[in-house]
Amino acid sequence: MSDLPSISATEVPPGAPIVDVREDDEWQAGHINGAVHIPLGQLMERYGEVPMDGDDDVVVVCRSGGRSARAVQWLNDNGIDAVNLTGGMGSWSLDNGLPIVSDGPDEPYVK
Questions:
Q1: Which of 14, 62, 80, 86 would you call most buried, defined as having the most Cβ atoms within 10 angstroms of its Cβ?
Q2: Is residue 16 within 8 Å of residue 56, measured between CB atoms?
């Protein structure tokens, strides 16, 4: 999957559609504000919920980039322009200090 389209956390355009494919507990611990939560195992059945409005590609994120890479491949194979967030949430929040929100206890996202 080396030719998989990807984007770094600092290159994500403001307002770009984001899909988080992590599990519920990971999502609750901390996620990108405005992201749509569709766990990878539910992506095929919830395909219609993928935000495709606007001119930007759909940015797909997981914890470190593996699950999101599989999701990006599937989305691109099924007609949705998607890019993988390189390094996942670890890159977003830990490496680059970009903001996250939490649905769970007030704990920072832990890689």
A1: 62
A2: yes
